[in-house]
Amino acid sequence: MKRKLIAAIGIAGMMVSVAACGGDDGGSDKKAGADGYKGQTLTVWAMDGSTPPTWTKDLKAAFEKKTGAKLKFETQKWDGIQQKITTALSESTPPDVIEVGNTQTPAYAATGGLADLTDLKSEIGADWTEALNKSSVYDGKQYAAPWYFANRVVVYNKKVWADAGIKDTPKTRDEFFKDLDTIGKKTKAEPIYLPGQNWYFFDGLTIGQGADLVKKEGDKYVSNLADPKVAAAMETYKKYQSYSKAPKDKDEATPQQAEVFAKGNVGAFIGMGWEAGTAIAANKKIEKDIGYFTIPGETADKPEGVFLGGSNFAVAAGSKKQELAKEFLKMALSDKFEGALAKENGVIPNKESLQSNLSANPAAVAAAPAAAGGGTTPLIPEWAAVENAPNPIKTYMTAVLNGKSPADAAKQVESEINKRLSQTS
Amino acid sequence: MKRTASSAIRRLWPNATAIVLFVVFAFPVYWMFATAFKPTGDIIAEDPVFFPTDATFEHFKKAVDADHFWTLVGNSVTVTVLSVLLSLVIALLASFALARMRFRGRRGFIVTFMIAQMAPWEVMVIAIYMIVRDSEMLNSLVPLTIFYMVMVLPFTILTLRGYVAAVPKELEESAMVDGCTRTQAFIKVIFPLLAPGLMATSLFGFITAWNEFPMVLILNKDIEAQTLPLWLSSFQTTFGDDWGATMAAASLFAVPILILFVFLQRKAVSGLVAGAVKG
Amino acid sequence: MSVQTERADTAAAAGIRKSDASPPGVGRDGENRGKSRGGAAVPYLLLLPALAATAVLLGWPLVKNGMLSFQNLNPRQLILHLTEWNGIDNYKEVLTGSDFWKVVGRSLVFTAVNVVLTMLLGTLIGLLLARLGKRMRLTLMLGLVLAWAMPVVAATTVYQWLFAQRFGVVNWVLDKLGWHSMADYNWFGSQLSTFSVVTLLIVWGSIPFVAINLYAATTTIPKELYEAAALDGAGAWQSFTSVTFPFLRPFLWSTTFLEVIWIFKAFTQVFAMNAGGPDRLTETLPVYAFVEGVGNQHFGMGAAISFLTILILLALTAYYLRTVLKQEEDEL
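ok -> structure tokens follow
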């Protein structure tokens, strides 16, 4: 009997002690040295694909040489990134510098989790392109620094176009439609692959129309999808989509449009320049046939409106290495590294003087003309919630493509959008 | 027993049904492996390619080449094995009491564990996150291990209880008549009979701990402390599902569990049946 | 593997219990009790680790979750470590909104359909396993085990891929079978079709557990019972209703209980399949809680919904839990 008891207590006791020891060793004891940066490590969160290897290696070397501190890049995946950033900002040792999507920056600025970088802007940001810096400013203060941007172009299959007898790339939207028509009639190819929920292309069309997706009502923002200008943009989208067999309720990622394009049976798709790489990875033979042109607008002198996707660098307010983080920003955003990133990744840099770095990249050359007239989604903190899956605007798009009138479709999703816009922070 | 013409038909239809069912159950698994081995061009084909004739390892290579893959494998194995072992030990004690002893509050305990089984862990992650954060335990395998342990604990207790009850009391008693103490009787007689039950029960734990995603996503942001489900989800980026790599990753992710199941579950069933016959 | 949760203790246990219960176990039980009188604390000590672990690691998060449900907790409050109590606002907002009750109704129907299909087909397949020859049984068992062991995330991705509009095999097969309107069918375009795919996935993944365990249970039914039934002139159907079914009943009960819990809580299958779309029409309760709480980052609201989810699950299983409470008294 005694032995049985001892055994039981022994095992139970062991369990408790295992759980108890756990409590002692979890804390991290990175201390911020008071003077000098030696021995410190600066942690930077960058999204998957943002930091090309050579750029990263050179930047690391230069940074470590100048400051004596270590630089650690942690590549983040897109899945669940919002929860990750929000929770990380609440921790006692958050990542010091974070890449934040430009459209999400206002929301994070409003949480109080980002450090004020107003003085950094006056130090190094005098010549940042105005349109690109917009998303970093919230309530009159600078909460992030513009890093890099990109916009969509038309990626086309030269062979398909040649088979259809088309010699030149279109300069206006009507010319583009006519070309798609010709491809449909003269070849067996699908003229364009455009799924129903390429929502950032649609956003670009609304920017081209000068439409706003939200409007202010009293002190609140509400949906403006019922605006005729939005409807006009949607009609344009619908016309494009009518040339495609792609699913009306999927976005460009399922299946990856570049992989569909890679089969060689598709005339064109609207996407980011680097998606050509995805196509080439799927089918090497497609490489020589790929060409790019700027998405044509209504008239030849003004390209279509585009959504300027991009990223800013922000510093966590809870970081204990504020000065070191600023050192990092100064170096990463210097002409040398900003220019190198533009060159290596084919992305649009944060100042116009650096655009010459794009010349070797035909996709970026096609993208650049539209950037000047580009825009973003509404830059209000409440907006981030609207884009959370399931994105009601995608629902709107599918509804219109399936035959609903834009006005009815707008009505259908209005309450969901308004609900999301009104959620308190 | 010896019917002739109609018995052929009688034997035919269960077999035919079985074959159809086999295809229904196995095809998605087959399709996962098949897709993983196909070149990308065959994956998105107007006419599906049913047998990957020119098989490629490119997707597997891509999946394994991911950053820190082997660290994550190590973490997943550690967390899964430890949490399952811990829960088995704790559950064995508890289930022995619940199956073999009579005491006040016994029913209450059983119902408590049944209710514990209903905990919606996915939507409690923020509460758990705040607890772990405030205990300064982020980026550690310890919280994962103990939370996974408790996730599978109720099921393990209730299931093991059945296995313990299935071991005939007479065996234990005769061992005690032979001069064993109750503890000795337990170790020498009951434990060997329980082994298949323990293995079978552990399967549930393995698959739960191996699959868990929402908690590790926000608790462990340091890649050194992450587990394989995060790696698996990383093939679905904003700009598309890389079907080939996703299926290759899914295959690699599933293989250990598949092997474990095929191996353990047969043992468990035969063990259970044997145990019953002996009784 | 055999699951023997409550009561059922499946066949093996029941079989044994039957044999040793026939000479009413009073004497032996009394003896047992006498032996353990000195160690009245033993069962509690044996239960202590399990109870302590559950209380700390489940109880604490539950309490914390309960507290969060009375707070206004959004990214701002989380990041700045602010505690803003807002009373029952979260509950008021959830319970007065029309969404919540729609989602509850949908979850109930969804659970009912899936559980019924799983139990029915699982039982039939389990009985089929018992009828098959050895080789066929192993073949079918292998298929079942493969489906069972598939990690849910992987399985969901495979199903998306099987049912993809453009390059999915399912549409291709339907088209080849002559149903040409299905060639380009979009399974994720409507509520019903999305639920059909999710249901197929869940039932596919749940049947093996039921079927294999049920088969294991049937193997332990004493042959004498059938012989006795045959002597009484029972046909196949009668011996099923008079021997097989009563023997399996406790097992079926406990399995149904488990399936209700598992299917009601199914999250990955629904969320990863179509993110609750189209138009949030396929959100079940856990998905709704996740989208509102974690997705839209209104953590207090999410906590309130998760609490209500627990209550509903308790209500669903209350009848079974009560039966257990009553039955347990007579056991041992």
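The beta strands of chain B are 236-237, 240-241.
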